[in-house]
Specification:
The chain has helices at about 1-15, 20-35, 40-65, 85-90, 95-115, 130-155, 165-180, 190-200, 240-250, 295-360, 365-395, 405-420, 435-455, 490-505, and strands spanning about 210-215, 220-225, 255, 270-275, 280-290, 420-430, 460-470, 470-480, 505-510, 520-525, 535-540. It is of the alpha+beta class. Strands 9-10-8-7-6-11 form a six-stranded mixed beta sheet, with helices on one face. Strand 1 (about 210-215) and strand 2 form a beta hairpin. The longest helix is centred in the middle third of the chain and has 63 residues, at about 295-360. The chain is elongated, with a radius of gyration of 41 Å. About 40% of the residues are buried.
């Protein structure tokens, strides 16, 4: 641009002296060229370029008019194109305020240059050509200043919007890669919580500790805890407690009373630290010691130094759990719909066809009639199995009812279909397990109950459910013929239950029941070493 305006200036004026303005522009352009990102030199150079261009316009217009090369003030057109350089630079750097200021300086310098720098006999500011050239380039400068960003957006190629499933696949692939690179290749909330408590044990004294997370419905679930006794922690967020205050304020809270619903009394120090990821509270860490003033500010600083990084890890694990649960539930519902609308309906039609064939048999075809009755009975049995499978696929743990209620409903339904007397014993805390853990425990219990109904030949079924988060134990016993290793699907069912138990860090135990039958139990965590604060509820036989 400097070369262009130098050539135009020489053509318009035929005066070497007017090229001094081009030399001044070169000097003014150096700061913006050499230090464009400097907070002071860059803008200062651009303002100098605009001012010199405006002043030069008046002088060059007068010189052109004097040489009779370009008259009526149109000689200003020789240098005014340079205004685009500083204005476009400011626009590309997304500085609209600076661009507006540059336009103001350009207008003032044009007036000054057209009034004061011309000769005694020339006054370009009154000439139509000078006014037209100045107005034209000020308008073009305004367009460059305020429309450059919009034009840049239009000129950029549109990024293709990824399809939802493609985007989900990409994100899940990244999540899988991250999960494999983590220590132990795990995204298990319980495992991460236990590791966090082990880290805190090294920096803060305490007799009890726990990690809680949200479960929906304004309640918390216990992911992990330590201590000689199991504690029935306060899990509601509407109670008057340090737990509720820490969750709402996202700030650590200390208290001189226990955060458990029942406590023996005595001196207690409690520290509740929220686990905050971004702007969201995802969980709480509770530390308690049976002494007063156990958590001064120095200890609090060490604790928050540990919980800060752990919050991000726990959030990733909880999100992964949610994704896995949603995907699993959606697939179960899809399978249930396909079975109901496909195979089940076709089998019902087969049953109707057999009924029609029986009704139209000629007299004396007793052997054929017997075969049809046998076939009809087998079709009815398969349809019943399919309906029970649909019930199993659609069974979920109600967040209001709890795990015990879901297991009881399933056992009662299957017991009725098989003529079993079902006996229930429940000891369920008001605290809840994580939703994903409850779902896996329900599936294990369903598999054990189904095996007893199909293969054991039992008359009675005993179901025991003990839930005291993070501990849980589900036990299913029958008085049948016991477990047979040669059963075709026996090993497969056991493998499924063992995999589910391993996924939630539980243990699967299969033992003979005296005098007959089998006991299948899944145990999560370690049992409580205290007397239960709740009474066991044993349902009458058959109820």
């Amino acid at each position: 641009m400097l070369a262009l305006v130098a050539a135009l200036t020489w053509i318009a004026t035929r005066d070497v002296a007017e090229l001094r303005w081009i030399a001044l522009l070169v000097v003014a352009a150096l700061p913006a060229f050499l230090a464009p990102d400097h907070r002071v030199l860059g803008p200062l150079g651009r303002f100098a370029e605009v001012a010199i261009t405006g002043l030069a316009a008046g002088s060059i217009a007068a010189a052109a008019d004097l040489s009779r090369t370009v008259d009526a003030g149109f000689g200003a057109e020789a240098v005014l194109p340079y205004l685009a350089v500083p204005l476009l630079t400011a626009a590309l750097r997304r500085r609209p305020t600076e661009g507006a200021a540059l336009l103001g300086v350009a207008a003032v310098s044009l007036v000054v240059g057209g009034t004061l720098l011309a000769g005694r006999d020339q006054n370009p500011i009154t000439q139509p050509g000078f006014l037209a050239a100045g107005g034209q380039w000020l308008v073009l400068g305004a367009i460059v200043t305020f429309a450059a960003d919009t034009m840049r957006q239009f000129m950029q190629p549109a990024e293709p919007t990824p399809q939802p499933y493609a985007e989900a696949t990409r994100l899940l692939t990244q999540l899988r890669s991250v999960a494999r690179s983590l220590p132990g290749a795990t995204l298990d909330p319980g495992g991460i919580s236990e590791h966090l408590l082990e880290e805190l044990r090294l920096v803060a004294p305490g007799d009890r500790a726990a990690v809680l997370s949200a479960s929906g419905g304004g309640r918390l679930v216990v992911l992990a805890q330590t201590g000689a006794d199991r504690v029935d922690w306060e899990t509601t967020l509407d109670a008057d407690s340090a737990i509720a205050d820490a969750w709402a304020s996202q700030q650590p809270q200390t208290a001189s009373r226990s955060q458990a619903r029942s406590h023996r009394g005595g001196d207690v120090s409690s520290l509740v630290v929220p686990l905050v990821a971004g702007v969201r509270t995802i969980g709480l860490v509770i530390l308690e010691a049976d002494v007063s003033s156990a958590y001064p500010s120095s200890v609090l600083a060490e604790v928050t130094g540990v919980t800060g990084p752990a919050a991000l890890r726990l959030e990733a694990a909880l999100l992964f759990d949610d994704v896995r649960s949603l995907a699993t539930n959606e697939e179960r519902q899809r399978l249930a719909r396909e079975i109901h609308d496909g195979v089940a309906q076709e089998l019902v039609m087969v049953g109707y066809g057999i009924d029609n064939a029986q009704a139209t048999l000629p007299e004396g075809a007793e052997e054929t009639a017997e075969e049809l009755r046998t076939l009809r009975g087998e079709v009815t049995r398969v349809i019943t199995e399919l309906r029970l499978s649909l019930f199993e696929l659609r069974s979920e743990v109600d967040r209001n009812g709890g795990l015990a209620a879901a297991i009881a409903e399933y056992a009662r339904t299957l017991g009725t279909s098989a003529g079993l007397r079902v006996h229930f014993t429940f000891d369920e805390s008001t605290a809840r397990l994580p939703a994903a853990t409850e779902a896996e425990l329900l599936r294990i219990a369903q598999e054990a109950i189904t095996n007893a109904r199909k293969h054991a030949g039992a008359s009675n079924l005993w179901v025991t459910c003990t839930v005291d988060p993070p501990f849980a134990e589900i036990e299913v016993s029958d008085d049948g013929k016991g477990f047979a290793d040669d059963r075709p699907d026996g090993r497969y069912g056991l493998t499924i239950m063992a995999e589910r138990a391993e996924r939630i860090r539980g243990r699967l135990k299969i033992t003979p029941r005296h005098p007959s039958g089998t006991t299948v139990a899944v145990v999560l965590g370690s049992p409580a070493r205290r007397d239960s604060v709740r009474n066991s509820v044993s349902a009458p036989e058959g109820e």
